[in-house]
Design goal:
about 350 residues; alpha+beta; Annexin V, domain 1; PH-domain like; 3 domains; 7-stranded antiparallel β-sheet; 10 helices; binds 2-acetamido-2-deoxy-beta-D-glucopyranose; PH-like_dom_sf; Arf-GAP_dual-PH_domain; repeat; phosphatidylinositol-3,4,5-trisphosphate binding; phosphatidylinositol bisphosphate binding
């Protein structure tokens, strides 16, 4: 009822269903988690509970589209606007960038993440020992590369990554750091995972948006006629699903082993440990009309020696893949995603990818 009274208010983040709080100075509805972020910028935002606080009449009419359009007047197209599902650092930096630093209030500003180069230190997880160490990263728009160096003044980079093959995604829980960012890229046809963070939330979110800015630049070159609205979804994106399942080998005699699975559209990767640099294997998921299929359960007679009961069978033109999930809800969710991917027709690039998978050493 109270919410209906603030009829002119709008939601701060997309997808918010149960705001519960409002900022009467900004005229936006916010959720509990975001209300904490707003409270940290008291000069700009005055937070009140929708059910517990007393609201003056003028505070209820304050909200409007105008306020939002003032603070979001010039958001660069590649800048990632978080939804309510995103992690704290993304939501917090979006709110601070908008209201506290007023980064998007005037058109024509030069953004640090748009300067064409970015050079700085990030904590990077060692591939072999799992230790996080400070490493220098350099992003160069001119070359379309992200490089990292093991020593600050090293001449040769340890790795040179083509920005157009990068997918960057925030993974605070998996990495065990609130600012943890996973960067994946293709190396010799395999997906390489890199895990980084910066103590400062603004720094890591600026790196994330700087990578997106360079990616947009390259997409514009690759697709000259495309509109921004067509290109933005091609920027780094989140994985469809991640989690543990058990799997068995091709002869189905090895026994079921617990693995971490990541579904990146048509690539289903499995790793021994969620933070491994390389997947142990990858399965390409093509479309149903090209011999791919998924079903619930395992083939009759499968010797199921694993601990988990909820089976999934994936059929590819080459072989069957058998998986088991701990819980039925996991099984249902994986199968839903596999079905969605297999029901979609394959693009020309995906045929190339399928051929690459078949001819991989
Ligand atoms: C932004 O950068 C461009 C090119 O470097 C420069 O010409 C312009 O004056 C800058 N604008 C502002 C507001 O600093
Ligand atoms: C990153 O995402 C693109 C689509 O945006 C996809 O084609 C590519 O395979 C992904 N790369 C990696 C290394 O995950
Ligand atoms: C795909 O799997 C479903 C479920 O097991 C089965 O009913 C269907 O016949 C299969 N389709 C093909 C083409 O094998």
């Amino acid at each position: 009822l109270k919410q209906r009274k603030h009829s002119s208010y709008i939601k701060e983040l997309e997808g918010e269903t149960d705001p519960g709080w409002g900022s009467c100075s900004l005229g936006v509805f916010i959720c509990l988690a975001c209300s904490g972020i707003h409270r940290n910028i008291p000069d700009i935002s005055k937070v009140k509970s929708l059910s517990l606080s007393r609201w003056e009449d003028h505070e209820m009419q304050n909200g409007n589209e105008l306020m939002k359009s003032k603070y979001e007047a010039a958001v660069p197209v590649y800048y990632y606007k978080p939804t309510h599902k995103d992690c704290q650092v993304l939501r917090e930096q979006w709110i601070r960038a908008k209201y506290e630093r007023k980064e998007f209030s005037e058109p024509g500003r030069n953004f640090t993440y748009e300067e064409g180069t970015r050079d700085g230190m990030l904590m990077k997880r060692g591939r072999d020992n799992g230790q996080f160490l400070s490493r220098r990263f350099v992003l160069l728009e001119r070359e379309g590369t992200l490089k990292y160096f093991t020593k600050y003044d090293a001449k040769e980079p340890k790795a040179v990554i083509k920005v157009d093959s990068i997918n960057a995604t925030f993974q605070p829980e998996k990495i065990g750091n609130p600012n943890g960012l996973q960067i994946t890229y293709l190396k010799d046809y395999s997906t390489r995972n890199m895990f980084v963070y910066h103590e400062n939330g603004k720094e890591i979110v600026d790196w994330f948006n700087a990578i997106r800015a360079v990616q947009l630049h390259y997409l514009k070159v690759a697709f000259p006629g495309a509109t921004d609205a067509e290109l933005v979804p091609k920027l780094t994106r989140n994985f469809l699903k991640e989690g543990y399942m058990e799997k068995t080998g091709p002869r189905q005699t090895e026994g079921f082993k617990k693995r971490w699975f990541t579904l990146d559209h048509r690539r289903l990767m499995y790793l021994k440990d969620p933070l491994d640099a390389y997947a142990k294997g990858e399965v390409f998921l093509g479309s149903r009309d090209h011999g791919y299929n998924v079903s619930l359960g395992l083939p009759a007679g499968t010797h199921c020696n694993g601990a988990w009961q909820h089976g999934i069978t994936i059929e590819t033109p080459e072989r069957l893949f058998l998986f088991t999930c701990e819980m039925e809800s996991d099984q249902q969710e994986w199968v839903k995603h596999f079905n969605n991917v297999m029901n979609a027709p394959m693009s020309p690039q995906e045929y190339t990818m399928e051929a690459m998978f078949k001819h991989r050493p």
